[in-house]
Amino acid sequence: MAGRLIRWVLPLVLLAAVGAGVAMAMTASTTTGGTVRAAKVGAYGTALVAANGRTLYRYTLDRKGVNNCTKDATCAKYWPRLLVKSGTKPTAGKGVSAALLGTIKQPKGMAQVTYAGYPLYTFAGDSKAGAVKGQGFDKTWYVVNTKGALVKHSVSGGSGSTGTTAPTTTSGGTWG
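and the corresponding C-alpha cells:
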C-alpha cells in the first residue's frame, strides 16, 4: 500500500516542484525585462518584443486606442493580445520609451498594452522568441519598431527601412 502511494504522490510532488521553478523563472524575466522591451528581430532590425521575447505586432485595421481584432474570433485566436491586469501600468524594458506605453480597457479585468496608442499583439505561429512568422500576414500585420512605426520591409543591408506610423487600410482579411 505504501509503495503504491509513493508511486502516485512522488510524480505529483516532482511536477509541482518543476512548475514552481518555471513560474519563478518567468516572473524573474518579466520583472527584469519589462512588459515590453526592444530586441533584434531577424532581418527587421530592433523591434518590440514581450517580456518572454515573443515578437510584438500591430494590426493595420486598428486605430489608436481601438482593438478591431477581437471583433473577429478567428483573428483573436491567432493574434493574442498583450495583456496586463487592469490598473497595472506596463513597464518599459531596455530600448523602449515609457512615454509611448499605455493600455486600453479589455473585458474580464484586463487591459491591452499599447505602444504609441496602438494595441500590441503576439502571433500564435511564432513558437519561440525572435520568430517573425506573422510579419506581413495578410498585408495587415507588421512588426513594430521602437518609435511605434510599422516595419514593413527588411532593414538588413542598410537600405531603406521601415513603415509609417499611420495605419494602412485594406479590404480586410481572410482567416483560416
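(Above: one complete record from the training split.) The chain is about 20% helix and 20% strand.
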